[in-house]
Amino acid sequence: MSDAYRAAPTPLRDDHVTDAGGAFVRPPSRFRNWVTADGRPGPQGQGGFRAEPGRYHLYAALICPWAQRTLILRQLKQLQDVVSVSIVLPQRGPQGWEFGAMRGCSPDVVNGERYLRDVYLRAEPHYDGRVTVPVLWDRERATIVNNESADIVRMLNSAFDAYTPVATDFYPPALRAGIDAVNDMVYEQLNNGVYRAGLARSQTAYEHAYDAVFSALDGLEARLASQRYLVGTTITEADWRLFPTLVRFDAVYHTLFKCNARRLVDYPNLWAYTRELYQWPGIAATVDLEHIKLGYWRSGERNPNGIVPKGPELDLCRAHGRDRLPAGDTADPRSS
C-alpha cells in the first residue's frame, strides 16, 4: 500500500448509531454507482461501468446477511467465473473487517490488502465513513462501484446476462410492484428489524422493534400457507432477500438479539420454506453457520465473554414438502 494511503485518516468501524430515543439507525451506503450491460448510468450515480467478465470483484463476509444476498445472486446466475470474490474473516478487530487464513475465507486477490478499510481508502483516500460489506470493486477504474447490497443484487441479476447461461430474471417487470412491497416490509420489520431489536438502547425502542419482527413473521407464516413463494408461484428477489435473515434467526437473533417470542422452527411454513431455499443448487455454499455464530457471538459488546453456543441443531437438509403448492418455471427441480 502506498504512503499516500497509509497517511489517510483511519475510517470508522461499522459502529452502531442510535437516535435520541435509543433506536438503532442504519446510515446510508456511500457508494451508489451501477454496473450496467452497456455502461450507461444506472438508477443513480455516474456511467462508465460496463458489465465485462473479469472486471469486477466482490468483497463479502459469510457472517453478513447483506453480503450473503449478493453471494446468492452470484450463485443463482452462475457468475462465479465472471465476478471474482474475496471473503473476510467473520470477526471484526480494531481495524474492522480483515482478510485472513480460516476455512471459508479468501485473500484480497485484487488489491493485496490485509484490511477492507484500506480497499475503501484506495477508492477514496480521505474516506471517513463506515467500512461495510458487500463491496463491488472495479479493477479497470480501481474504485468501489457500490457498497449497497440491494443495488448489487439487482446488478448481478441482470447486468451480466450476456455472460451467463442463466436467463432467469429474479426481478421480472410483471412482478416488480409486488416484489417492492414485500421488500419494503421485510427490510423494515425483519432484515433491519432484528438489528433494531438487538441494538436498541432503550426498552421502548427494543419493544417496538420486537413487536414488528414477530408481526412480520406471523404474517409471512400465514402467506406461505397458501402460496409457494412471497410473490406467488415464482421465486424472486424478495425470497432471496428474506432468506439470509431466516437462516440466522434461531442461531443468533432469537437469543443474542432478544427476539425470543418464537423460534423459526416454531413456524411450520416458514421453516419448510427456509429449508427449500437452502436446498436450491448452490445456496448451501453461501451459508456458513460457523462463520455466522463466531461473528455475532464474539462481537464483544453483546456477549463480552465470547462464548459461542454449540446449538441449535438445524436440519436444513430435511425434506421440505413445499412441492404441494404450485410453483412457476423457476422452481427448484430437486423439490422434495
Order of helices and strands: HEEEHEHEEHHHHHHH
Radius of gyration: 20 Å
Shape: globular
Structural class computed from helices and strand pairing: alpha+beta
Describe the structure in your own words:
The protein has ten helices and six strands. With 336 residues, the protein is α+β, with helices and mostly antiparallel strands. The protein folds into two domains: 3-163, 3-Layer(aba) Sandwich (Glutaredoxin); 173-281 and 318-324, Up-down Bundle (Glutathione S-transferase Yfyf (Class Pi), Chain A, domain 2). The strands form two sheets. A four-stranded mixed beta sheet has the order 4-3-5-6, sandwiched between helices. Helix 2 (65-76) crosses helix 8 and helix 5 (176-191) packs antiparallel against helix 7 (203-226). 44% of the residues are buried. Mean pLDDT is 93; it is low at 1-13.
SSE arrangement:
Blueprint: H1 3-6, E1 17-18, E2 24-25, E3 56-60, H2 65-76, E4 84-87, H3 116-123, E5 135-138, E6 143-146, H4 149-158, H5 176-191, H6 193-198, H7 203-226, H8 237-253, H9 268-278, H10 289-297
Parallel strand pairs: 3-4
Antiparallel strand pairs: 1-2, 3-5, 5-6
